[in-house]
Amino acid sequence: MSTAAAARFSVSSRLLHWLMAVLILAMLFIGVGMTASVSRRYSLLVSIHRPLGIAILVLVGFRLINRLLTRSPPLPFTLPTAQRLAAHGSHLLLYILMFAMPLIGWGMLSAAGYPIVLWGAWQLPPILPQQEGVYAFLRQLHTILAYLFFVIVMMHLAAALFHGLIRRDGVFESMASWRRK
Amino acid sequence: MKVDARDSDGVLPALSKTALVTRFAVIGVVVLCSVGAFAYAGGWLSPDRTTQARIVAALQDVNGSHPGFRRAHAKGICATGWFDANGNAASLSKATLFAGGRVPVIGRFAFASGMPFVADQAKGVRSLALRFRPPGAEEWRTGMIDIPVFPFKSAQAFYEQALASKPDARTGKPDPSKMQVFAATHPESVTALTLIGKRSVSSGFADDTFNSLNTFRFVSATGVSTPVRWSAVPVQPLAATVEAASTGDENGVFDALIAQVAHHPVQWRLLITVGQPGDPTNDPTVPWSINRQHIDAGTVTINKLSSEDGGPCVDVTYDPMVLPAGIEPSDDPIPSARSSAYARSFILRQEERAAKPRSAVTPQEIVSGGKS
Asked: What whole-number distance in Å separates Cα of residue A116 and Cα of residue A125?
């Protein structure tokens, strides 16, 4: 048995990673798409964006607990320090953004006095009082962090492919492989 | 990846130069395609797409830059009161606010123009926006205007008209040839504008009828969905109709309302127009038959007015897609367009909030009963 197949993320980690990967990419595309559409698609996208954001917030809560309870495979000892730092730094940033983006979205709708509608009569309470200025700040932050989020996701994707295709060091397989051992 | 390609020391054979280049190219293509798709979704690759930012920018070109103000319906005042539901609409909509009882309302009276300091035009299009906040249930926001139909059937048509009515740099007036092109390509707008031109205009806000114009759907507790439009019909008798275009008074139309409310609360009945199969739901330029059934859902009472400055409506966007369970959008494209453009306008004016000059109608004017 090779070392590449030996060190894999747990099944729960891999499930959460790939489920959230799909949801977060969808969320980023819905978010940027709804700010540039005025047709009925706009309302449809907004109505998906809110509950999907809350779903991501709930999932990242489980994911953090899962991360603390399960063992993550170590990066290959041959990995240069700079790449090692980039890996840890970007993962930390991804966790921060996964928590921050839904909370900022929820907070900014609260500060703007919008109802936070999930589905029909299912609504969330505001987490901030309605307040001028706070909305404008959080709304801008939501946009800036969304672009940052997309950039980090792209770098994460490029790095994963770099590990899988160029370095071939088992890092890609530690998350992407579903083969039986 | 073949893990068994490793040698006995666990080291993979080096990639050939060609393989290395190919693999880097694959990574590059995957990332570039993702970035391209993201840019496409965001509208950066489609300069002709009608977006909320472009609509709001076009409105600003027509009306000038007025930081901190709504990009449309810019000149207005806040209104506070309540809605007494009589339960008549409860069979059509399961929305809590129709069940019966009193619901607090924060409203706003305005002229539809995007100019916040223009002198009141007696025949200018007026609006009444309402925010119903039933305690413990979902809120409802609606913006209504006092014309019989909406002049545009899509956001695209609205945007084209805004572009065509941008004042020419030399004449300071819209280019007539551009307006002609718009009229030729949008006959439905010409028909609607003729209907709007024929309307009789009430003397002020208090004796004015405000219409939803857009079609929504009421959904009953048993799931029956009915297309509806609605109107706020004044309880106050029609005082007079106006023929002159100008009041000759800066805030004359607002002052008249302020004086009336200081004397006595003003009221509107909320009339629900029940659509029939075949009534156009996706085109607000087309009126429904006057023979449609009307349901009186209750009465809106306004007993207090405030200036926008310090008033309860200034930081509210009357987004027509803020709907309670029991009211749903129809296939009318305009509410979604309004929702997106209002959101954009709201972002801009909240960012500019600190730079906002005082609104035309001041708190002092309200306190002095409209006779400042």
From this structure: 7
**Residues of A whose CB is below 8 A from B30:** 157-158, 161
Query: What is the model's pLDDT at position A46?
Result: 96
* Token pair belonging to A46: 């907004």
Q: What is the pLDDT of residues B250-287, one digit of tens each?
A: 899 999 999 999 999 999 999 999 999 999 999 999 99
Q: What is the residue type of A164?
A: G
Six-digit token pair at A13? 């980690």
C-alpha span between B274 and B22 (Å, rounded): 64
Spell out a b/e string for B232-264, using b for 16 or more CB atoms within 10 Å of the CB, else e: bbbebeeeeebeeeebeeebbbbbbbbebbeee
> pTM of the full predicted structure?
0.92
Summarised one tens digit per residue, pLDDT across range B48-84 is 899 999 999 999 988 999 999 999 999 999 999 999 9
Residue of chain B whose alpha carbon sits nearest to that of A154: B31
State the pLDDT confidence band at B5, using cuts at 50, 70 and 90: low
Minimal Cβ distance to A2: which of B6, B317, B319: B6
Residue-level pLDDT at B3: 47
A113 touching B (Cβ < 8 Å): yes
Q: What average pLDDT does chain B have? A: 92
In contact, A153 and A24? CB cutoff 8 Å: yes
Say how many CA atoms lie within 13 Å of A96 toward its Cβ. Answer: 10
Please tell me the distance from the alpha carbon of residue B184 to that of residue A168, in angstroms, as a whole number.
Answer: 64
* C-beta atoms of A166 and B43 within 8 A: no
Subunit contact B350:A135, Cβ cutoff 8 A: yes
Q: Is the pLDDT of residue A172 over 70?
A: yes
Return the SS3 of A75.
coil
A130 touches chain B (CB under 8 A): yes
The verdict on domain A3-176 having CATH code 1.20.950 is yes
Give me the CATH code for the B61-367 domain, please.
2.40.180.10
> Residue B271 is which amino acid?
L
The residue extents of the domains of chain B are 16-49, 61-367
